[in-house]
Structures are given as structure tokens and as C-alpha cells.
Amino acid sequence: MLYGEVYYSFGNVQLNYLDWSESTQKRVKLERDYFYITLEGGIGGSFGELYGNANLENAYKDYKEDAPFNRRYSTFVDYDFPFYNEIRLHMQNFHLDTYSYKVNDFVIGVAYKYKAESGFWIRPFLGFHKTDDTYFNGWNGYMAGWVFDLPFDLKGEKFSLGQWNEIEFGRNKSFYLLDDGTPVGDGESYGLNGALCMWWYAHVHITAGLQYRYALYKLGNRAYQSAVIYTMKYNF
Fold first, then answer.
1. The pLDDT of residue 26 is above 90
2. Residue 101 burial (CB < 10 Å; 0-12/13-18/19+)?
3. How many domains does the chain have?
4. Does residue 1 lie within any of the structural domains?
């Protein structure tokens, strides 16, 4: 339970469609477009900021099918605890559950949040990264990144431009190389993962979004991957 003064809270349910680019589907034969449902929420106050989402991918598919034709579950939780001005203790955890593969990525480190009077904010972070998946378990280098949001008005309509971005580096060699030096999984000591997002706040209860999703040496592949995500949110 969180104690202290509450500054804001939000929650929504989303319907998303992820459309991989043609070049990605040619490079990564297992990538397929899919719908997914998201529950998202957050709260902030004197106790810090807590954010989370839960996703159900390919809801109409069989859980025991092979990827990418299977039902999948994922969650993400992010908590920043303030300890000096806008410097925070940062913790985040991503979990993915499929029939043939599971992963849990935990990061602990520090973050800093900058807020402008215009409404723009950005929060960079840096932390130690621990991976626990089907093939590897242990500390796995570091993760750095940022989240930002830039609100603006256009012809009387409210929009915002945002991004989340993660950079992994210094990964454990046993995570991305076989003993003979053959690359496996993500295939490099570093990786890039994120999305650039445009949101239209069409109504107090309705938000529409367009996201450019990207990844390099991530998601179990060595190729650059990109997709467009179409999103509709119902805000509680």
C-alpha cells in the first residue's frame, strides 16, 4: 500500500494492432502481425511514481501453439522512489510468458525526472540488469534509457509526442554467444528496444495512438525490427 499525498492517477484499457514492416518479416521469418489487449495504469505522489501494464497477445490463439502463432502474456511494472529532489531509486520489471519461452527482466538503478512548465517531461535512467529466462539466469550487464512526453495543441485538438527507449550493454557473454563464438538469441553484447508514440486525446474517455516500434539485437533476433502499432484507448 502506498502512503502519502496523491498528485495524479490514470487507467485505461486498450485495443492494439501491431503491424510488422515487410522488411522485418523478410529478415525475421517468425514475426507475424497480431492484436493485443492492454490494461494500463499509473499513480504518482509524495511516495513516488508507479506505472504498470498487462498485455494479452493473440487472445484467440492456442497457448500451446509454437511462436508466433500462440497466445502470450506480458506485464511491465515501473516504480521510482524519490530520495533527493528529482533523483529517484528506479526499479522496473518485464515478464513474458509463452508456452515455449519465458523471460523476466529486472532493472534496479537511478533515474532523474525533469518537468517543464509547458508540460514536457523526461526521465532518463541507468541501472543493473538481471535476466531470468528459459536459456539464461543471472546478472546481464546494464540498461540505460529514457521516457519522455511532449504535449501540444494543433487546431484546437490535444496531442502528445512521446518515446520510451532502452539500451542494454555489457551483457554476459553466455547470454549471446555459444562457447564456439556462434551468436545466439540477441547475438550481441548490446541491444536497442523502444517506441516513438503519437497520441491524440480525442475525448476525455478516448485516446488514439500511432506508435513506431523498433528493436535491434533484441527480441531474440540479430536483425533490425520495426513495426507500426495502431492503438485505441478507453480512459477510465
1. no
2. middle
3. 1
4. no
